[in-house]
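USER: If only I could read C-alpha cells as easily as an amino acid sequence. It would mean a lot if you studied the pair and described how this chain folds. Here is the record:
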Amino acid sequence: MAEGQFDYIIVGGGSAGCVLAARLTENPGINVALLEAGPPDKGVLMHCPAGQAVLMKKGDANWKFETTEQPGLNGRCGYQPRGKVLGGSSAINAMVYIRGQRADYDNWAAMGNPGWSYDDVLPYFRRAEDNARGEDDFHGVEGPLHVMDLASPSRLGAVFLEAAQQAGYALNPDFNGHSQEGVGPYQVTQRNGERCSAAKAYLAPIHRRPNIRVFTRAHATRILVEHKRAVGVEFVRDGETLQLRCAREVLLCAGALQSPQILMLSGIGPHKQLVRKGIATVHDSPGVGQNLHDHVGIVQVINAPRLTASIGLSLSGTLHVARGLLEWQKHRTGMLTTNFAETGGFIKSQPSERAPDLQLHFVVGKMMDHGRSTALGHGFSGLVSLLRPASRGLVALRSKDPFEPPLIDPNFLGVRDDMERLARGFRILRDLLQQPALTQLGGRETKTSAQATSDFHIEQFLRDNADSLYDPVGSCRMGKGLMDVVDHKLRVYGVQGLRVVDASIMPQIISGNTNAPTIMIAEKAADLIKDAQEQ
C-alpha cells in the first residue's frame, strides 16, 4: 500500500534524523517524512536525567543489542544499547557533550574528505549549540541544542578533580575549547533540569510545521530503488506494510548498526553476503558494514559505605532518591539531575603520546557490569576507555528478515596495541582513585579488580570485564576508496538520491563521546542537501 509522496524521507528519528527534519523543513516548499521505529519521547524516565540508569537497561525505548562472542573479551558478548525512540540514543544516553580533538577531523579531511577538517566543521558545532556559559570562538548560543554545566553536581565530582590534580593532571574547564587534555567537569545536554535530546532540541519546536509528517513505530524494512535511484522506503507499522515515495532523496539516519543493515536488506552491500542471504544485489558495495569500531573501556568500582547521602541501593539511599524525586518534580533541581558521569578527563597513556589517547569518566555510584547490574550499598566508580582503538569489526546480516537484529562484531581488543593501552589506563586509573582526596572517603576497590595486580592478571581482568562505551561508528565509511560507502557529500556510491547521515560515516572514531559529532554531521549534511537543491 502506498502512503503518498514527499520530497525527502528520513529513515531514523535519532540525533541525525531530528536535525535533518528541522533544517530541511525551514523551507516551507519542502515536504519531509520522518520514520522512527520506536515510540514518541514521552515519560518521566525520558526527561529526568537520572532516568538513563533505567533506560540503558530496560524498556521499549532501547534496542538492547548484543555483539557476537568476542575473542578479545574471552568469548563474552558485549552490550550495545541504542535508542529506539524519537531522539534516538540522545534520549537514553549519559548526555555528555564532547566534540573530540582537532586532529580527528583534520585526519578525516586527509583521508580524502574535503570539507571535513576541524576548521570546516567547527561552525556546525557552534550553529547547533546554545551554551549556557556564553559565546566565544568555540561555542555558540543561538542553536537548538542546549549545553550546560550540571545544575546540582554531586560533591564527589569535586573530590575526584582534587584527586586527579594530586596525581599530576591539570584542570581543564572546557574539553571542547582550545585543548582537550586535562581533567574537569563534563558539560551536558540538559535544559532547565531536564534532558535535552535531539528530539527536544530540534523536533519539538517544529511540530506544528505543515510540511513535516512524523511516523513513529514505523520499522523501515528496505529502501525502494528503481534504475539505480532511491525512490522511496518500505516500512511496517501496526502490522501493515506501507510505502512512501520521494521526489528528491532518501536520507538514511539509522545509526552505525542499522544503517548498514537497511542498505544490505535493500540490496546495497557486499554481493557475496547478499547472495548468501537470498537478497538480489542492487549495487555491489563491499564496504557496507565493514570498518565498525567503538570505544572500549574498563570500570573500577570503589565500595564506600560511609557515602550514605549519595545515590546507592540502601535504606538511606532510597530515602535520598525519594527526596530527590520530589525536588526534581517541583523545581527540576537536585540529585536526579545527575548524568552520573559528572566529571572526567582526557589523558595520555604514556608521556610519548602526541595527544590524549584515554578518556576518564568518574561515576557517582557503583557502576557494576558497566551499569547493567544493580549493586547494594554506596560508592563510586572510575571508567577508563580507549579514545582511538585500532581494532576493526563489522556489521552483517543474520538473515533477510528485517526484524532480526544485525550481526554485530566490533572485534574488541582484537589488536594487541589496544590491550596494552587499556592496561596502562587501568593502572593510571587505579593510581588516581588511590589519591588522598578520595581515600579519605574510606572506600576500597572491589575484590575482583583489586586482585588484578600483575600484567597477566590485569589483562585477564580486562578480557573478563571490558566492554563498549556505546559509540559504534564507521560501518558506512566516508571516503574515496573501494571499501568506502559514501563520498564527502554523504552520497551513497552507486545509487542516486540516497545519502547516509549518521555516525556510520565516520572514517575514524573521534576522541570522545559521539553524540555531539553526530549532530554536527547532520547540520553539515543539511547544508549539503540544500546546496544540491539549488543546482
Summary: The CA atoms of residues 350 and 439 lie 25 Å apart. DSSP finds 15 helices and 25 strands in the chain. The first strand starts at residue 2 and ends at 11.
